[in-house]
Design a protein that fits this description.
Layout lengths: L4 E9 L2 E6 L2 E8 H11 L4 E5 L11 H10 L4 E4 L5 H9 L4 E4 L1 H5 L1 H11 L4 E9 L7 E5 L4 E6 H10 L4 E6 L11 H10 L3 E4 L6 H9 L4 E4 L1 H4 L5 H10 L8
Parallel strand pairs: 1-4, 1-12, 4-5, 5-6, 6-7, 7-10, 10-11, 11-12
Antiparallel strand pairs: 1-2, 2-3, 7-8, 8-9
Helix pairs in contact: 1-2
């Protein structure tokens, strides 16, 4: 098994790191560059930078913010928010990101994802999918867009499998119900996705204890993304890696 990846997430609004609960009730969590340096020094493996207001505000990712984070640390960076075509993706990559994250555009114009994979390579494209329970759908989960605010009526597992068929290297599902709630990842969907799609899966939304990270790793996640527990000091990355390693989970060491 490949070593698990620990990935702090910098949700960004107005050039600052923020964190909310279920995508609302945002509170300030610090300076972008300072957070990036802190996580680099703490032994994180990668960083995610998501411009959470970009799609709702009808603009592209703040490229200056991508540059600042990329310059502040040596970690591979996945950046997104408002990435709606190949030109926007290329700009994010040129600003210093290793991977580009696509969410709403992947649902609305899926052919755009196929073109990104063709132009930039499958290891460069991550598709983020905001999900919530909907028992009327085959998988029991629905896709949400516009920063998790707008329901689509579409089945989340079907959408994820279609993105995997396009050659996307990573899928990043975030549970709307669990986000920021510290109650644990949505393990049923995570397990379904790991079994159904060949892409690597990033667990996102809900981590509150070290046990939650362990559960997601045992469910088959390749990367463990979290924000609140890292930003506000509830869990330290070195201690988390020691905890996982002692329980048989291979972790990256730098």
């Amino acid at each position: 098994m490949n070593p698990i990846i620990i990935m702090p997430c910098l949700d960004m609004k107005d050039g600052r790191v923020v964190k909310g609960v279920r995508f609302v009730e945002l509170r300030d969590a610090g300076d972008l560059s300072a957070c990036a340096r802190t996580y680099d020094e703490a032994g994180a493996d990668e960083l995610a930078l998501l411009d959470i207001a970009a799609t709702r505000e009808g603009r592209q990712t703040m490229l200056d913010a991508v540059r600042r984070v990329a310059d502040a640390c040596s970690l591979p960076l996945t950046a997104g928010g408002g990435v709606n075509d190949c030109f926007a993706a290329e700009a994010v990559l040129e600003a210093g990101a290793k991977r580009v994250s696509v969410a709403s555009a992947a649902f609305r114009r899926p052919e755009t994802v196929r073109e990104m994979v063709r132009r930039f390579g499958e290891d460069t494209v991550t598709v983020a999918i905001d999900i919530d329970r909907n028992d009327a759908l085959p998988s029991g989960y629905e896709v949400f867009v516009n920063g998790g605010q707008e329901p689509t009526g579409a089945d989340a597992l079907d959408h994820a499998k279609r993105m995997a068929d396009f050659g996307v290297s990573r899928l990043l599902p975030t549970s709307k119900a669990a986000d920021g709630a510290l109650t644990g990842y949505d393990l049923p969907f995570l397990r379904m996705l790991v079994k159904s799609a060949p892409s690597a899966v990033v667990a996102s939304g809900g981590a509150g204890t070290m046990d939650h990270f362990l559960e997601a790793a045992e469910a088959g996640a390749s990367a463990l993304l979290a924000a609140s527990v890292f930003h506000f000091g509830a869990i330290a990355i070195p201690e988390l890696k020691d905890y996982l390693e002692k329980r048989g989970i291979a972790v990256q060491r730098r």
